[in-house]
Q: What sequence folds into this?
């Protein structure tokens, strides 16, 4: 038996996810799951809801002071969250 084109399993899985249209939802899930790791437990404690729509992460916070602080760091947070996932998932964050 001869090997033809040997591919890595990870590449094949990635290809299948892309073909089935599951890559974007999976990356969105990973980004939401990475919120606590990237921002830490203090921010997580004040976070009420996270939703991604049209490459925008909507975040509900219970602390107005924290909301203002994160608003000033928005661009950096977008970069850090995308880096945690390893893909361009979001382009903007809206805090409410």
A:
């Amino acid at each position: 038996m001869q090997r033809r084109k040997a591919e890595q399993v990870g590449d094949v899985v990635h290809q299948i996810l892309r073909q089935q249209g599951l890559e974007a939802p999976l990356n969105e899930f990973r980004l939401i799951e990475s919120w606590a790791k990237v921002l830490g437990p203090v921010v997580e404690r004040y976070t009420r809801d996270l939703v991604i729509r049209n490459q925008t992460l909507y975040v509900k916070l219970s602390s107005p002071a924290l909301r203002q602080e994160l608003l000033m760091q928005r661009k950096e947070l977008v970069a850090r969250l995308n880096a945690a996932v390893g893909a361009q998932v979001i382009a903007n964050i809206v805090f409410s």
User: Anything to note?
Assistant: The longest strand covers residues 47-53.
